[in-house]
Structure of Nicotinate phosphoribosyltransferase:
Amino acid sequence: MILTSILDNDFYKFTMQHGVIKLFPKARARYTFINRGKHAFPPGFATALREAVNDMQHLQLTQEEKEYLAVTCPYLDPTYLDFLQGYRYNPAEVHISQHGDELEIHADGYWYRTILWEVPLMSLICELYYQLTEQVRLSDEEVIRITREKIEKYKQMGITIADFGTRRRHSLEVHKLVVKTLRQYGEGCFIGSSNVHLAMRNAVKPVGTHAHEWFMFHAAKYGFKMANMLGLENWVQVYRGDLGIALSDTYTTPVFFEQFDKKFAKLFDGVRHDSGDPILFADRTIMHYKGKGVDPLTKTIIFSDGLDYDKVTAIADYCRGKIGMSFGIGTNFTNDVGLTALNIVIKMYEALPEDAPRWTPVVKLSDISGKYTGDAKMITLAKEMLDIV
């Protein structure tokens, strides 16, 4: 059994699940695997993945984990924690097949259930890929040394860093080593992990708010023009000011800022950058806050798009003294082990809101076309509706 805790998942999956249960309990969703890197999967991979997925049905929230969430995350309702304690993964929701070296994965069911599959599925794909292709990583000692050097350099920069590395990590074992090392040597710099299980085990903060799928579903239910506004409104309805970092690029940042009005600019603590030029994004964000009469230094940008030391240095040098900033680093922490990291994603591709007559394809645009996901016709329609060139 590869995964050992139901909390071995990204925090925003649980915060979104909480919101879905409160607001959209009858909605359904479908997800699909996208092999961006065109990786070739070895014979028997689908069988091994199916066995690992089947094992996940035995995961359940322990009393210790429930008490941790109750204390650490008081904005999660007790009713939700009771629900999560009774939740079990249903492997029948995941469909896996292999044709030659190509892998096909789909998940479908009620959104409040299927929302938890994406991250552990991706981490399993990565871990099994390295196992079955018999690739040998760097030693534990080397992983610790590399991680220590990184966090000590970030610490000297006077910035804050979080681990965002669950999805494309080399393995759970490497992830454990990385977070433990970050915690040990990153005091004052390392502020938490998106992985709830490892945050709990290392006594650091679980980090995250919402993902693209939150806004993608809102587009299916309310239309592209209302997706950002109603996605933010509903987030506020659930969390009442907590978890106040807004994801900006689901339908491009310029479109987002058109609806990120003075109310949202004041209410949310900041925004997250996940695609496109980070310096251009910083400029746009600073100008937007100033235009709304908000001091940018009272707000924060969370940068999380494929970061490494050089990118972080350039961003920090530019933003320092202009706007608050923090950084979420993923693969560069949890899969820097001497092997090639997998370029894969799992994304929602259809949604069925309550009482909708049919499934609606959903898309993500982002600030670079290479990260678009979804049906080509729907992408074209979204760009036309939102006046995106």
The radius of gyration is 20 Å.
